[in-house]
Amino acid sequence: MIVKRIIPCLDVKEGKVVKGTNFVSLRELGDPVEMAANYSKEGADELIFLDISATNEGRNTMVDIVKNTARNVFVPFTVGGGVRTIDDVTQLLKAGADKVGMNSAAVANPNLIKEASLRFGSQCVVVAIDAKKFPDGKWHVMTHGGSKDTGMDAIEWAKTAEELGAGELLLTSVDTDGVKDGFDLPLTKAIVETVRIPVIASGGSGSPDHFAEVFAETDVSAALAASIFHENTYSIKEVKETCAKKGVDVREIGLF
Amino acid sequence: MIAIVDYGMGNVASVSTAFQRLGYDVILTDQQEELKKASHIVLPGVGSFQAAVDEITDRGLRDILIELATEKPFLGICLGMQLLFSTGYEGGETTGLNLIPGKVKKMNTDFLLPHIGWNALNINHAFPSYQRFQGDHVYFVHSYAVETDLRYVVATTDYDKDVTAIVKKGNVTGIQFHPEKSGDIGMDILKTFLQEDSHDNYSSN
């Protein structure tokens, strides 16, 4: 059987992995390629780079990071953040990314999803959806790092993204992100039950149990986390051990 | 020297790097002379069956690939594996390289497609050199799969049904998943291909 994937996310700013839930207090953590290689050795099933560079130099550096990662890391990786045009997609795939993530640009121009999937195949198009629950009872699609309400219904947007050719959805709950009290189960469940493509849950993990929980309670294909891995609170191995103990199928590498 | 066939379908940097890491020299080429000189031929590829066949034909590579497949170890990866077969149905019915009899059809399943992620290998006992990969997880990304005679099937994976994962007929090996993205196991599988097929009937330069 296909296993549930555990994915560390690396936020990259001007060529360095950074940590920080708000942009004021970013702290440099290390070299992206080195960290990616280490995570892959520890058993990460996949990696995601999120480029949060503000400058053109930063973006160009990201392309070099992608090239070096492709030469040094032998698990699949996705690159997102600041992908606006089909040329951006082309450049990142050419540099060696396996998949490209698109968020705000896809909301502003849904045709980008279609164009990218027709040209390169659905398998490399990941649409990232940041969602937040509103008093109207619906989850709205948020952009600009979760700060701007588009008013769009996240469930409807997920359907549209699939129809346009998205191969996967990266679903982040703005409500649970950074809270470390577990993934957003109702949101994840609602999206997974809406689409027929793999969904990656993101936002809220604070312990290995939270991974086991999201896999037990929803049919999500993968779960992503950043800080619990970067801060060495838990290793990928610990997360997988906990999942395996609770009956979740994971890829076991090395000694368990 | 391992020749990786460059026909414009998908990124091949990781495939090249994987072989380099195993200590081999690699050339990425669509030149017939270079292909003839190589010890091994690797046909990679991501994209649709029909587009790939068109590219191979337009570059005048079809006949030489078929010829080389009888002479030296030949490995197809992902779409490159599917192209080894007689007929594909992605983008319309298309004739493949026909090196192994079989068809490449959209996977018939209620499970999610594409089949993306790490899945376990079940090895056919008739292929002892691959036996040690029994149960190992490798990384798949595909929606179409090979239907062929079981005697060519080295390994399958379970995704609702048995899905062809590795095939072999004479010199020709095909791998549906991405060994270059499957960590250490993937590297070991490439090594197995290289070692198993290291007989000397291709040594003419």
Automatic annotation (TrEMBL), chain A:
Main location: cytoplasm
GO molecular function annotation: imidazoleglycerol-phosphate synthase activity; lyase activity
Active site: D11, D130
GO CC annotation terms, alphabetical: cytoplasm
Reaction catalyzed: 5-[(5-phospho-1-deoxy-D-ribulos-1-ylimino)methylamino]-1-(5-phospho-beta-D-ribosyl)imidazole-4-carboxamide + L-glutamine = D-erythro-1-(imidazol-4-yl)glycerol 3-phosphate + 5-amino-1-(5-phospho-beta-D-ribosyl)imidazole-4-carboxamide + L-glutamate + H(+)
Pathway the protein takes part in: Amino-acid biosynthesis; L-histidine biosynthesis; L-histidine from 5-phospho-alpha-D-ribose 1-diphosphate: step 5/9
Keyword annotations of the record: Amino-acid biosynthesis, Cytoplasm, Histidine biosynthesis, Lyase
InterPro entries associated with the record: Aldolase_TIM (IPR013785), His_biosynth (IPR006062), HisF (IPR004651), IGPS_HisA/HisF (IPR050064), RibuloseP-bd_barrel (IPR011060)
EC numbers on record: 4.3.2.10
Localisation: Cytoplasm
A GO biological-process term: L-histidine biosynthetic process
Its biological purpose: IGPS catalyzes the conversion of PRFAR and glutamine to IGP, AICAR and glutamate. The HisF subunit catalyzes the cyclization activity that produces IGP and AICAR from PRFAR using the ammonia provided by the HisH subunit.
Family, as annotated: Belongs to the HisA/HisF family.
NCBIfam families noted in UniProt: hisF (TIGR00735)
Protein name: Imidazole glycerol phosphate synthase subunit HisF
Source organism of the structure: Terrihalobacillus insolitus
Lineage start: Bacteria, Bacillati, Bacillota, Bacilli, Bacillales
Encoding gene (name): hisF
TrEMBL record, chain B:
Record-annotated active site: C78 (nucleophile), H178, E180
InterPro entries (UniProt xref): Class_I_gatase-like, GATASE, Imidazole-glycPsynth_HisH
Example of a GO cellular component annotation carried by this entry: cytoplasm
All copies of domain Glutamine amidotransferase, residue ranges: 4-193
An annotated Gene Ontology molecular function: lyase activity
Protein location: Cytoplasm
EC number: 4.3.2.10, 3.5.1.2
Reactions catalysed according to its record: L-glutamine + H2O = L-glutamate + NH4(+); 5-[(5-phospho-1-deoxy-D-ribulos-1-ylimino)methylamino]-1-(5-phospho-beta-D-ribosyl)imidazole-4-carboxamide + L-glutamine = D-erythro-1-(imidazol-4-yl)glycerol 3-phosphate + 5-amino-1-(5-phospho-beta-D-ribosyl)imidazole-4-carboxamide + L-glutamate + H(+)
Transmembrane segment boundaries: none
Biological-process GO terms, alphabetical: L-histidine biosynthetic process
Pathway stated in the Swiss-Prot or TrEMBL entry: Amino-acid biosynthesis; L-histidine biosynthesis; L-histidine from 5-phospho-alpha-D-ribose 1-diphosphate: step 5/9
Pfam families xref list: GATase
Keywords: Amino-acid biosynthesis, Cytoplasm, Glutamine amidotransferase, Histidine biosynthesis, Hydrolase, Lyase
Domain of life: Bacteria
Function comment: IGPS catalyzes the conversion of PRFAR and glutamine to IGP, AICAR and glutamate. The HisH subunit catalyzes the hydrolysis of glutamine to glutamate and ammonia as part of the synthesis of IGP and AICAR. The resulting ammonia molecule is channeled to the active site of HisF.
NCBIfam families documented for this protein: IMP_synth_hisH
Subunit relationships: Heterodimer of HisH and HisF.
Protein name: Imidazole glycerol phosphate synthase subunit HisH
Organism: Terrihalobacillus insolitus
Gene (UniProt): hisH
